[in-house]
Amino acid sequence: MDTLHIAPPDDWHVHLRDGDALDHVIAATALNFRRAIVMPNLKPPVTTTLLAMAYRDRILASIEKACASGQYSSSEQAILRQFQPLMVLYLTGATSPTEVDRALASGVVHAVKLYPAGATTNSEAGVSDLLGQCSAVLERMQTLGLPLLVHGEVTDAHVDVFDREARFIDEVMVPLRERFPALRVVFEHITTRQAAQFVTEQAGVDASGRQLLAATITPQHLLYNRNALFSGGLQPHWYCLPVLKREEHRVALLDAATSGLPQFFLGTDSAPHARHLKEASCGCAGCYSSPYALGLYAEAFDAAGALNHFEAFASLNGPAFYGLPVNSGRVVLTRNPQDIPERLPFVTDSGIVPLRAGSSVQWSVTERA
Ligand code: DOR
Ligand code: ZN
Q: Is the CB of 164 inside a 6 Å radius of any atom of ligand 1?
């Protein structure tokens, strides 16, 4: 198979940032994905429906700026303008059940995100004791069917960084699902065999037939193991959180993504940071993958001999989970190698380094309609 015709994909986990950074990255997401679940870890975080609505307006304004920039053809502009940002609230100890009501009523907020305090970029305002601090909110989300998106790592400094996701399953995920069995949960950017197995085995559906537990998987966790971080020297552009794991975990994730099971779907976790902030004595976590993500995912599915399940992962399972229609139109991917530049323009002259910079990807998007 050298071409893939699929319904237009969505990105169920992306960081679009704000201001100038947003203007630099918005087109890469909006050209390749019809919708995206937009992460709320801005400074300050997007903790209310009002803030989420204002952020959504800035994203749509950024699309218009891209269209007016002269960089995109009229057919590309038409694609850009179809983009729908799906907003997410950042959960804090102060989030109220009434805020959950407002979120759902707004029609623009599609989920609430748990950042364990201290787990990652801009997580300081997050939650340190989920069941202790947030039970009333979780109860309301369970009743209303609003999904909880989870950054699944414990933050205890004594726990080995490579064990934090597996420990989170036992210490937070299992008690959470025992206490709120009908709460709809996405285990975001899973990185371990244990998480893939947990999501596979705990599968179940609500009264409307929607999955109760699902997971997103990034391109870097399907294509690389932790050796990538140290190959020939310290490689900051492969550093993200949760960090890349051993090969056995990558293989388990690839098995899950390519299984065709409805609870696994695409979420790039594309997380742009300027080059100088990653190539630093204390480098930021995050891989910037949006521009080439679809080709990278197709490459991973191709290597697994599972291109027949690519559309389910990229375009069908996510909408089914979120109760949204599959996108109309189509996207064509071709086995057509494409160079990935060393650097792309970003907010400062230092630019931004995309995932697999200076190399190539075996698949590319050749048609969008
Ligand atoms: O690598 C990451 N970068 N992981 C996250 O959880 C956050 C993200 C970011 O916002 O930079
Ligand atoms: Zn993320």
A: no
